[in-house]
Description:
By secondary structure, this protein is mostly helical. The protein is 76% helix and 0% strand.
Amino acid sequence: MSNTNKVHFGQKVAFGLGMLANQMFPAAMGIFFVVLVEDLGFSTTMWAVLYFAPRLFDAITDPIMGFISDNTKSRWGRRRQYVFIGALIMGITFIFMWQLYKDNGLEYNFYYFLCTSLIFYFGMTIFSVPYVAMGYEMSDDFHERTNIMAVSQWIGQWAWIIAPWFWVIMYDQDWFASGEVATRSLAAWVGLICMVLAMVPALFIKSKSTLEEDYEPLNTKNIGNSLRFIRDGFKEAFKIPQFKKLCYATFLIFNAFNTIAGFSFFIIVYYMFNGDAGAAGLWPTLNGCIGALITTFAVIPIITKMSKKMGKKKAFLVSQSISIIGYILFWFLFIPGKPYLFLIALPFFSFGIGGLFTLMMSMTSDVIDLDELNTGKRREGTFGAIYWWMVKFGFAIAGLLTGVIMGFVGFDPGAATQPAGAITGLRLFYSGLPIVGTLLAIYIMRDYDLTEEKARAVSAELEKRNTLKE
Length: 470
């Protein structure tokens, strides 16, 4: 843990640039995935498999990477070298992953994309688990942790502001002949730029040598023990009620959000513009871009102030309640001929994901202190891996459910006119599923009790213990 309460703003920005890369990759993936269906002819079943399988693989490797990161002895510390290597793998494989040609055939493209995406997500594991752990250990101050996460989320949100504009570029004949051609070129730019951004934390965030630390050995002989430690780490982490609540609540909100996220494009195009993507123009772009702008410039600063005024738990409960209003408004404000009306729902809707990670990542840092007090071990990597395992497993389930729901309501991505009831079904899930997930998350977090007073008491006890050791 850092012994410094306040973190230099430059260090926060360096961490935030890594978050921009961490969010730009999935933001771009969400846009490009539509090309698989619209331009390359992938079925909804293929969509589901390609969403589910790589992310499930990613979720399995995360805890292993957390153990490795927590127990690495090097003169660069525990995290930086992995962040650098992971950034390199992500950037290169992202470029290759999207070099798809319709002439190669549907089956070839499917297996090519599946294999390259597995390598990409392996790189993301190597990068993201140590990277997130870096943020947890940057400060031991209750509010400074929220400030660090607020800055990183503010910078990271620019991914969701930029990415929706890919819609405009991809289907503008003056730019590219087709979405298929566009993704090949755009992927190269995204891969290279994000690779550099992801390297910034490795190059500029300070860390101390861990060569003399008493960590678990990392070698082939002890791989069995390593797996046991990972298993025990899971058990110990979920024995902490506060951490269990954070994981379950995040899983419900993020899973529900990502399940329906891809529906907005189809609802706008097929419901509001009768299947004419050209006529839809900028509206799919504005839906994502304006929502991200609101999150960046309004929601994150408001959430940060709310957290300091009323505490992290109350700020979470209030922000998620506001997001429910947004999902209700979407049902009434997606109106054919009046696309501008759905923009009214965006400020309310943006409080959901905008408040989620700013608060949850800060609260996870508090839980890590509590774990250290109970066990004597400092395990940012393990807890970060477990928390993000829940996020990524939820993302995998969400991708699978997206395809299942599209099939269930009868949506046909290859049809200019959709079957009766298909778009209504998508709209019902678009509003209803996140409301259910958010209400369950609020219920789970209603009695979360790691308050500022308790967190500061834990921090003080740890400082006293560390002083006695010295």
